[in-house]
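protein under study:
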Amino acid sequence: MPSAFERSRLTPPLFALLILLGTTGPLATDMYLPSFPAMTQEFSTSASAIQVTLTFFLLGMGLGQLLWGALSDRLGRARPLRWGTALFVLASVAAALAPSLETLSTARGLQGIGGAAGLVISKAIVADTTKGAQTARTFSILMTFGAIAPAVAPLLGAYLGELGGFRLVLWVLSAAALLMVTGSLAIYRETLAPAARSGGNFLAPLKVALSRRRFVGYLVQFGFAFGAMMAYVSASPFLYQEVLGLSARGYALCFGLNAAGLIISGLVSARLVGRVPLRRTISVALTILLGASLVILLLAMLQIRSLGLAAVIFVLVSSIGFTMGNTTGLALAEVRDVSGSGSALLGSAQFLIGALATPLVGLSGADSALAFALTAVASSLIAFGALLYTADRFHPGAMEHP
């Protein structure tokens, strides 16, 4: 008779919980950005000092994923998930009540650590409860929701900020965190059997994942594809307003169209799973990503400033939607025995490589697309090379030919 773990399935309530776990972190990243000017006034400080609160949060998210990923492989998913989401609630409340910038920065750092639990463990739960084509399809759908969250977060944050200031934004995040805790208690049941949990020291699961050559290739490919995405996000205000001369409203429209392209490509990617081999989809997408990056580089070198540049950027952003979910599925298929740590490494690669790409795009000045184009070309080349790196030992299986 099958055990409770063998009968584990990705039910609709559990899937809804995974969406919440995977989107609350991105919402917490971007929702309070429109409130930065008001925060500088309330705390009587500079804009750069306020930005430190975001830095603390991102560091917490990056480091927290490694922590919770390793713990979830050793202890099971349930306890680390509940500990992390509880920390997220407490830190969100502390941030909303923070009397000083120092307290707010500390609370945001702890908020990032707590929020990382939902982000990393939700991916591990998918690996526990799905196989083959369903894994890649599920990741594509989840990452589509993950793309929606940062797109709508500033708009939602601006509305809430007008109603009650940045503290209302943080109270709303506290409520979302409370929903995460409630869901982890009421809906989630452990999906990692005791026999499947890792032993050894705390870092052992991370070392196991990093010892798998093809996983490392997918990890690098995933991180640098996202690096191209972060290069676009950080450069976008200058690309549209300074280079193309659009208004703030025109910039918002273009940003929204690109977000729609990313969402649609993620949904189409999910539909292609089971019909087209995953690596073929990724290869075509990375080829388009590299081609679009090279076209942008050519336009930047020729100083051509037309809406054609906006069209090529749309193609670049949309191509990334075909890579993220598929690559996650392939990567975690290589480390099913330590999928929590594998998920943590994928998440950390996003933040670290994204953090590396972000400052590079401004090196050519606010009125030039050259640095952005070079960053996108370099990121896409490394991503494509990493995919080739995984091919020499590849043997077709369920993930490649679902």
Q: What stands out?
A: Residues 132-186 form the longest helix (55 residues). The chain is about 80% helix and 0% strand. Confidence is low (pLDDT under 50) at residues 394-402.
